[in-house]
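Predict the holo structure. Ligand: magnesium ion.
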Amino acid sequence: CGIFGVVGVADAANFVALGLHALQHRGQEAGGIVTYDPEAGFQSARRFGYVRDNFTSQKVMETLPGSLGIGHVRYSTSGSKGQTAIRDVQPFFGEFAMGGAAIAHNGNITNANALRRELIGRGSIFQSSSDSECIIHLMARSLQQTIPERMEDALRRVEGAFSIVAMTRTKLIGVRDPLGVRPLVLGKLGDGYALSSETCALDIIGADFVREIEPGEMVVITEKGIQSHFPFRRQPSKFCIFEHVYFSRPDSILGGRSVYETREAIGRELAKEAPVDADMVCPVPDSGTPAAIGYSLESGIPYAMGIIRNQYMGRTFIEPTESIRNMGVRLKLNVNRALVRGKRIILVDDSVVRGTTSRKIKEMILDAGAAEVHFRIASPPTAWPCFYGVDTPDRDKLLAATMSEDEMREHLGVDSLKFISLNGLYRAVGEAEGRNKSCPQYCDACFSGEYPVVPSDKVESGFVM
Ligand code: 5GP
Ligand code: SF4
Ligand code: MG
């Protein structure tokens, strides 16, 4: 998901809508905005579909007055899978003795089922099936005096990954979980401030990037300034390495590094680790593009757009049902026949998850007369599901969980298949010494199976780590 908020600027909702539009790649199912204005009070609009189709009309934007606002773009990783209900669309709102608060959450709470059971047992009435709603109910039960303190109280009981943008009548609040799994950045916008999942959304509104919110940090921002503190026990950070590979936009800055440059470096590493004699390097667009450029630069094999992407389609994996995803490949990608005929092609993609995309693309490329197809993948084999906010299927649907690399090559029907090594990936994200085995610098659980937070709900329902 993507989260965004601003304080201290007139017509906050317009800025929030623009920010969410720049974060649309993080969630395409639905979006919502909440604002506060002293006369109008809290107002909200939550809709299915793209930001540009919902939050551009004057009719909607007029209903969201005020100089303080937050928003969320959703893709479901928990809750009602496949059929998001409007009641699951964030931001969520709660009315407390000291006033209202709205929150938008990116990540996944790994003990949400246990918390929900406990809260329902004690009388909480849940409105949604979302894991994020637990936070509101935990806040409601807290005995603290202020909303930020109640939020701290609540979040100390929550396990898993959370980046949060929240608001009260006067405050914009940002929090990252102690491991800092999901991103969150701070920007300055005129006299006001902005919080955003990624820096690309600061660019769109002309805000200056100030810094990242640190793992375990809570910032409380008013028109007067920023207060920062660290309410959780300090731990080594575990930022999601897959944000670098795929999830974030290539024009964002993560951990002081350009995502684009990291992806290009991944491609260079791949070319060193897995060279092959061929005529051209083609990306599977868009997610494989920077890595393909890196592979081409390192290997000296020309880069070409052998597959053309229809820009009017979204990200395939974000479409929640299998049948839509299957169709998605053809709706989205087409082979540039004239280019690939008779050629030995190196195809670069960011990841192989179920293998559906890769299989279809290989068929399309061979149909178009390619002589050879060599797959090069910009991440290690995805052998474990993510429980921290990136949607992955159950283990039995992950190709790499059920097959060896050789079996995968056979299954995909390609001439060769190579994944970047985990150490190569760490080098590409700037860790010259590679992965620190005793304390990995990132979360890489979907590749290594080493989960930095025990996914206790999943373990309870039978998941074997
Ligand atoms: P698959 O191998 O499952 O058919 O799809 C892989 C493609 O989906 C890749 O090109 C990648 O861009 C995209 N993708 C990236 N991350 C994920 C993810 O976490 N889950 C799924 N299902 N697809 C992803
Ligand atoms: Fe990121 Fe993978 Fe960790 Fe999920 S399991 S947070 S996708 S690195
Ligand atoms: Mg892709």
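The first strand starts at residue 2 and ends at 7. The chain has a mean pLDDT of 94.
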